[in-house]
Amino acid sequence: MIQPLQYISQAPKTGTHIDAIKQVLEAGGKWIQLRIKNQAEAEILPFAKAAQALCESYGAKLIINDYPHLAKAVNSYGVHLGLQDMPVLEARKIIGKHQIIGGTANTFEHIRQRVAEGADYIGLGPFRFTRTKENLSPIVGLEGYQKLMEKVRKAGISIPIIAIGGIEAADIPAILETGIYGIAISAALTNQTQTAAVLEEISSKFSIHSI
């Protein structure tokens, strides 16, 4: 099952991606994406192994960003591919059928592409400018989500779509109103001294929306 709230890792001001992931898991996070950029696969492998072990101990699911071979090596729940990464079909040949594949989209054409490729979910964004990504695609924004999700409904597309990119707790209700399936959070959960309280506040936005 695709969780509606995802944490995308980033190294905190002091510590590593693993420190940040452990903090979110201790706070109750259940879906983690390990996202380490600009390092070789061999350098990321120890982080992937540690993140997988942590997620298993907390009953959470791990997605590896960019690297299908690493996802297969550590038997993570799946892999997430950017628009400039390996095609979904090629990644599927590496990881097989039991691991899921997420794919980034920025436009409706990308959404249709991901559906045609057989992705299991889509990360649609960025919602706003974020410093966690290089070569950022055009900003989607709330109005963009409204227009894109209207096209998704008219096309009868039912794949889970996750909003991503600079999203904060206060943004969540309006984004969910567009019909978006879930939200990915990174900076809003990193470098927090009260991670559990922040995660609870974020999670409450989903509860309010479902009433």
UniProtKB/TrEMBL annotation:
From what organism does this protein derive?
Pedobacter roseus
Name its pathway.
Cofactor biosynthesis; thiamine diphosphate biosynthesis; thiamine phosphate from 4-amino-2-methyl-5-diphosphomethylpyrimidine and 4-methyl-5-(2-phosphoethyl)-thiazole: step 1/1
Keywords in alphabetical order, please: Magnesium, Metal-binding, Thiamine biosynthesis, Transferase
Q: Which cofactor does it need?
A: Mg(2+)
| Residues the entry annotates as binding 4-amino-2-methyl-5-(diphosphooxymethyl)pyrimidine | 33-37, 65, 104, 133
Please give the name of this protein.
Thiamine-phosphate synthase
- Keyword Magnesium on entry: yes
What EC number is given for this enzyme? Answer: 2.5.1.3
Q: Name one GO cellular component term.
A: cytoplasm
